[in-house]
Amino acid sequence: MKKGKLIFLTYPLAAALAILFLMAFAASQDKKFGPEWDIPAKYKTMENPYAGDASLDRVGRMLYSKHCKSCHGGIGLGDGSKAASLNVAMYSFAGDKFQAQSDGVIYYQSFIGRDEMPNFEKKIPDEEDRWALVNYLRSFKK
Q1: Model-level pTM greater than 0.85?
Q2: Alpha carbon distances (Å) from 139 to 2, 15, 23
Q3: Domains contained in the chain, number
Q4: Which among 6, 12, 55, 68 would be 20 to 30 A from 84, CA to CA?
């Protein structure tokens, strides 16, 4: 095959691959956020007995890495390795919407879960560990 014909075939192929790549990226961005959470009143007013307890930082970081990072990403942006396979988009833990929630609401969302967000009550049964994770999620503030 002559060099001119090879170039003639290479550019359209490269353009087609670039378009497919961009379409795949755009499709993942079309995800919608799920409906607002229905949080029971008990959790809306729940106080964090370990708020600001720096001795729990290591535990919270470890639990996040083990249970949350694969979906929510290394710094809580919702871009973990499993995020692309989920049907809904996730809010960033550093974002104002997430950080404006009470600790009790974050606790409920983190451990009770819903839909694609699994329930972690059995995987993280210790209350202190649960609050350590809530405290760690607070550390993602902008």
Answers
A1: no
A2: 61, 43, 34
A3: 2
A4: 12
For 8, the domain range is 1-30
Per-residue pLDDT of the chain (142 residues; tens, 9 = 90+): 555 555 555 566 555 555 545 444 444 457 888 889 999 999 999 999 999 999 999 999 999 999 999 999 999 999 999 999 999 898 899 999 999 999 999 999 999 989 899 999 999 999 999 999 999 999 998 6
Distance of CA 1 to the CA centre of its chain: 50
Task: Based on the fold, state whether residues 105 and 38 are members of the same structural domain.
Answer: yes
11-23 b/e (C-beta count within 10 Å ≥ 16 → b): eeeeeeeeeeeee
71 and 133 share a domain?
A: yes
Distance CA 142, CA 137 (A): 12
Q: What is the largest CA-CA distance in the chain?
A: 75
Question: Among candidates 85, 81, 87, 56, which has minimal Cα distance to 69?
Answer: 81
Dist. CA 138–CA 105, nearest whole Å: 12
Tokens of 72: 């929510």
